[in-house]
Amino acid sequence: MRGKLAAYLGRLVRRNRVRADGGEVNANATRDGFVSDEFTASLPYWLPPFVVMGLAVYGAILWNFFLSLTDTSGFQTPNYANLDFEMYAKAFADPVFIGALRNTFALLVAFTVLCLVVGLVVAVLVDQGIRYENTFRTIYLLPMALSFVVTAQFWLWMYNQQNGLVNIILGVVGLGPYEWIGNPSLVLGAVVFALIWQFSGYAMVVYLAGLRAIPTEQFEAARVDGATTLRMYWRVILPQLKGATISASVVLMVFALKAFDFLYSLTGSYYPPKGSDILATMMVRQAFVANNRAYAAAIGIMLFALALVIVAPYLLYQYRAGEL
Amino acid sequence: MTETNALSGRSWRSTALYAVLVLLVVFYLLPLWTGLVTSIKADVLATAPFLPPAPAGFTSVHWTRAVNALAGGLVNSLILAIPATILSALLGSMAAYGLTTLDWRYQVPILMLFIAGIFIPYQAVLIPLSKFWASVVPVSDLVGYVGLAGWVGDLVGLILSHVAYGIPICTLLFRTYYKDFNEEMIEAARLDGATTHTIYRRIILPLSVPMFAVTLIYQFTQVWNDLLFALVLVGPGAGAPVTVPLSQLGASLSEVGFGIRMAGAFVAALPTIIVYVLFGDQFAEGVST
Amino acid sequence: MARLELDDITKHFDDDGETIVAVDDASIDIEDGEFLVLVGPSGCGKSTTLRMIAGLETITDGELRIGGRRVNEAKPRDRDIAMVFQSYALYPHMTVRENMSFGLEESTDLSGSEIDERVESATDTMGISDLLDRKPSELSGGQQQRVALGRAIVREPEVFLMDEPLSNLDAKLRAQMRTELQRLQEDLDTTTVYVTHDQTEAMTMGDRIAILNDGLLQQVATPLEAYHAPANQFVAGFIGEPSMNFFDVDLEGDSVVGDGLDYPVSDDVRAKLDTDALVLGIRPQDIELVEEVESGHDVAVTVDVVEPMGDENNVYLRLPDSPAGETFIANVDGRTLVDEGDDIVARIPEEAVHFFDRRSGEALRNREFDDEADVDLSL
């Protein structure tokens, strides 16, 4: 990858030099001809969006990285002359950070895995050639169209200790009432459940597309071979949903990393319910409440690294498979 | 004998299937339903949360209050979401054209940078972003020169931020669409004498209409639903998009506040719900790409 | 209308640092108004050659001239060519009229009414006047094909380029369009380069055919020359259906000898064979089936399989010593009655026999064919 990029940049520089000298363009064109023609012609289209996006994403990350190496706090101007990894060291000595990190991972794993399972089951059910399939699908996906802020309001009411529907339902079988949001050991589970409610529809849509891509003959062949429905899905269909699983889990994990909006809305403040602090909420709090900008920047960079660890292999996989 | 057995087995199965599907409908709609009935109860505790109020217990006061509290936010959200959506879709389509239909070497690495941009946690860019609009390009001060309030500038900054961070996903959506275009068709246009520009204007853009629908709907929902950028770049105040006041609504009112909370949630979600009900298929296509 | 010259045209593709030679040093002179068919198996470089002429691929080396003008660096739009694609490549959002006027709008200064006139006359020629306001999705495959052709002729270009334009049609329509295309090309008298992998199209349509294999030009000749006097074993095997039969043989005295074959050659023929390692070629149509061995050119064989096609039979024959499955084909009259397992005699007339150098594949001796009357009859 990097070699290619370097080679590409090299060509770019060389080409520009030829252009700048003028006159030599034609000599060059006999070799590269339309490649360079297409390239120059394509510039006005992708370069402006690329510059805007590049500055906003990669420029900002770079800036953020350097900020994280300073020790800016309060209203100081960052001193970029004195850079070190102090903030990162500080983070790993900070029990709040460790707690948030643990919660982030717990949320990430539990949410993603359960979402995939629920999504797969629902997708298989919807794929049985049912009537009103479109209506069912539309309803299952609806929560995803809603803002985290909106769904947080609904679930606050659902989880209400005295009058929430969740406790009322559990009360029927003699359980509870539980303090879902107020109890630090329950809140993360409650959040995961609400997020599954919101995003399992997404996993369903991705799996459904995967199921539809499998030729009907395979279902029929498996049936002719005498496989029971369950075994057919397990041995024939599931292995072919690998691609759908990978892309869905990447997107879900990234959603989980972004769960800030939901947690903020549960309390309407930068302090999420006790026991549900994740890196995303901690970073924003450090940056805009505590004003520890360098520390917040370091947390932001670590979140970015986390996303990179998830996304980079996925992109590479897609690239290799020629999906891009 | 066996035939009827098989038949009844099948119908039993299909009954069970539909029962599960309907149960799932209940699961996915219950929080919304509960919210809806709660929002029209004078006393939210009068009946069980999932039951509608008795006729005497009905009220529209929560809705009136919610609309009053969120009206400004709704307008701001519209001012924010519409231009941000259109701009990022347009830029995404251009980028995808330059990186897909026009064929040159090493466009895939460039494309990778675009796509990786989709997955960036905003926390990694939040401080530079707020710094940028505060000191590098202080929009809220700049608009002062043309006699506009500072919050207008904040909103402009928010719009442009959403445009910038929306470009990657829009590019990917258009890229997957353009990749399936018949290459020979583009070559035919080129042989017909069309330039890069006329190919885009006369061939690609007219053929992109369905994808614009998908992208606009998806991106509109994303921008409308965002809280983090709105909170950090605009904050509560005159320019706040609807998600900001909604997150504060009734927070101090405990149980009694849930009437207005639920009404507010619906008021804020209404545009996205309408868009979703009308264009659910395009939304599904947007998310599954 | 113009002469089209390919002068040592070469195309290299760069595949991750490795260079792939797609077309190697191809030189063809295409006369003004000529219909040249580029034919060869898939991957032979015929489409690449066509795309280089169109300007859709760069030319690595060599020179391309249209009407005497070097066009290597010219953009497609400046070459005065029109191309018909395999997929038709119609613009799906435009009506037939818009599809056909698009090129005129983009590449000429013609006024709207002049464009309309030309579009209408082209649709008249193609017999699609009643489809002018339809979109491609509302047309059948054959109609789309006509629109694609109409889009090319409306431009009145110097050269037509056609990339397997008939391969998406069903067999019946394809045969019909073949004649129609030929007539059209004769009427318009426009230089045409036509790419196909179908040798029937090549034989029936081309004034001349250029046979390509592995990026190398094998032969440029009239269809009959290519059939009767192939330049090498590849051309001999590629042109003709069923394919020519080949036997590996060695020259021993007055005969060529191979597995189960001992075939005497006359002095005339022998004189042309300047090497011992040979391949004997005989077209299935030239083999006669007889009852008894009468000369050295008759070979006792066993019938392996008979494929009756109605008017003719393809009879798969096996030499006595050759292993099962190794057969050669005789194409005989459909009324010839032979059955599987029959022991009969195949007569291989010497005047119809080809000899190739086994190492280079080069033709050393082709069948006798110089009679003009013969040529006219077989047309």
UniProtKB/TrEMBL annotation, chain A:
Pfam family, one: BPD_transp_1
Keywords assigned by UniProt, alphabetized: Cell membrane, Membrane, Transmembrane, Transmembrane helix, Transport
GO biological process, one term: transmembrane transport
Membrane topology: Multi-pass membrane protein
InterPro entries with a match to the protein in the record: ABC_transporter_permease, MetI-like, MetI-like_sf
GO CC annotation: plasma membrane
UniProt name for this protein: Glucose/mannose transport system permease protein
Naturally occurring in which organism (per UniProt): Halarchaeum rubridurum
TrEMBL record, chain B:
Listed transmembrane segments: 15-33, 78-100, 106-125, 132-152, 158-178, 199-221, 227-246, 258-279
Membrane topology: Multi-pass membrane protein
GO CC list: plasma membrane
GO biological process, one term: transmembrane transport
Gene3D superfamilies reported for this sequence: MetI-like (1.10.3720.10)
Cell compartments where the protein resides: Cell membrane; Membrane
Domain called ABC transmembrane type-1: residue spans: 74-279
InterPro entries: MetI-like (IPR000515), MetI-like_sf (IPR035906)
Keyword annotations from UniProtKB, A to Z: Membrane, Transmembrane, Transmembrane helix, Transport
Keyword Acetylation: no
Family per record: Belongs to the binding-protein-dependent transport system permease family.
Protein name from the UniProt record: Glucose/mannose transport system permease protein
Species this protein is from: Halarchaeum rubridurum
TrEMBL record, chain C:
GO term, biological process aspect, one: carbohydrate transport
GO cellular component: ATP-binding cassette (ABC) transporter complex, substrate-binding subunit-containing
Subcellular location: Cell membrane
EC number(s) reported in the record: 7.5.2.13
Bilayer topology term: Peripheral membrane protein
PROSITE patterns for this protein: ABC_TRANSPORTER_1 (PS00211), ABC_TRANSPORTER_2 (PS50893)
Keywords: ATP-binding, Nucleotide-binding, Sugar transport, Transport
Domain ABC transporter, first and last residues per copy: 4-239
InterPro entries (alphabetical): AAA+_ATPase, ABC_transporter-like_ATP-bd, ABC_transporter-like_CS, ABC_transpr_MalK-like, ABC_transpr_MalK/UgpC-like, Mo/tungstate-bd_C_term_dom, NA-bd_OB-fold, P-loop_NTPase
Function: Part of the ABC transporter complex XacGHIJK involved in the uptake of xylose and arabinose. Responsible for energy coupling to the transport system.
Family indicated by similarity: Belongs to the ABC transporter superfamily. Carbohydrate uptake transporter-1 (CUT1) (TC 3.A.1.1) family.
Assembly description: The complex is composed of two ATP-binding proteins (XacJ and XacK), two transmembrane proteins (XacH and XacI) and a solute-binding protein (XacG).
NCBIfam families recorded: PRK11650.1
UniProt name for this protein: ABC-type D-xylose/L-arabinose transporter
Species in which this protein is naturally found: Halarchaeum rubridurum
